[in-house]
Design goal:
The chain is an alpha+beta fold. The chain folds into two domains: about 100 residues, BH3703-like domains (Murine Class I Major Histocompatibility Complex, H2-DB, Chain A, domain 1), CATH 3.30.500; about 200 residues, no CATH class.
């Protein structure tokens, strides 16, 4: 017989009795069966119990009220602690089969729903995939990182990647400034997705000399853009549907208000491949000179797709493409 630090000889049988009592008190009059399943708390999040009561013919009669569901979750967590003995990995999924007077609890361990920890190799795999992608388009020049308060996984809270970071890539006539962390899978969860699900890139004329006081205005713009995106992640779907967006206007020192257009790339790949959970779209950032707005007005559309598309049309006609420039650069 298993030893329990809580002193109960059969904690699972005791838990089943209390679960049955909680369900029976909540059961509709004609309830003959009930089945529920759930996930116990991990990283502060739990799911379920999900299921329903049914009559003898199998018709759904109703669902567990909140009080009964809360009681079951408490029993599940208590039992999980009592069964946390040395040996195989403890269980994280459960199922309850109920008949009046009896509740049978079954449990199992599902590795795919375990929250990612600080040392999960998926973070480095994502960073390596992005570096390989950019290395195929130019010479990776540098990373630019921002500190900030690190979370429990050693990651910055904005990008939720290993770093709040940009990667700089030199091409023959231009420099690419790309976010490097928005597509890193989120820590502390098991969700199999590449974080925010995209990265941004800005192409600018290559600097002819050091920026004043060592400040690169494109670096500041790209950090600002990424932070804004984490507040407005539906921008990605808007661009996919409408083709382009004026995401915001940005004021450079002494340069006026630049409309910043987000679109799909023209001369770069549309996606970054090789990431842990599939490819993610690449979104182009273009800072348009205030003079390019001549004759255009913003509409009630929050991200002004018609204005953004007209700006891109004018740039294509003039040969500028998506290359951003300040003044006479």
């Amino acid at each position: 017989m298993a030893w329990s630090p809580f002193g109960a000889k059969n904690p699972r049988a005791d838990a089943e009795k209390r679960i049955e009592a909680a369900i029976r008190r909540a059961a509709p009059a004609r309830a003959a069966t009930g089945d529920w399943s759930g996930v116990r708390e991990m990283a502060g999040v739990s799911a379920g119990p999900d299921g329903e009561f049914r009559d003898a013919a199998g018709a759904v009669l109703g669902y567990l009220p909140d009080a009964a569901a809360d009681a079951i979750r408490r029993e599940i967590e208590t039992l999980a602690q009592r069964e946390a003995l040395p040996g195989p990995q403890g269980w994280n999924r459960y199922a309850i089969a109920w008949r009046p007077g009896t509740a049978t609890l079954t449990t199992r361990f599902d590795a795919e729903i375990v929250p990612r920890g600080a040392e999960d190799p998926v973070y480095e795999a994502a960073a390596n995939a992005r570096r390989a992608f950019w290395s195929g388009l130019g010479a990776v020049r540098d990373y630019v990182e921002r500190g900030g308060q690190l979370n429990a996984w050693g990651q910055t809270p904005v990008f939720l990647g290993p770093h709040e970071r940009l990667i700089l890539i030199d091409r023959p006539a231009t420099r690419l400034y790309a976010t490097d962390g928005l597509s890193t899978p989120w820590p502390g969860v098991a969700d199999q997705s590449n974080g925010w699900g995209c990265e941004f890139v800005l192409e600018a004329a290559r600097p002819t000399g050091p920026a004043p006081a060592g400040v690169d205005p494109w670096v500041e713009l790209m950090f600002y853009c990424a932070r804004q995106f984490t507040d407005w992640p539906n921008l990605k779907d808007y661009v996919e549907k409408e083709g382009a967006a004026v995401f915001f206007t940005y004021e450079f020192d002494g340069g006026g208000e630049f409309p910043v257009v987000i679109s799909r790339p023209l001369d770069l790949p549309a996606e970054i491949p090789g990431l842990p959970y599939g490819p993610v779209p690449l979104l182009a950032v273009t800072a348009c000179n205030p003079a390019e707005m001549r004759g255009l007005e913003f509409t009630d559309d929050s991200w002004a797709a018609p204005v953004a598309l007209e700006l891109l049309k004018r740039r294509k006609a003039s040969g500028q493409g998506l290359v951003s420039r300040l003044g006479d650069d």
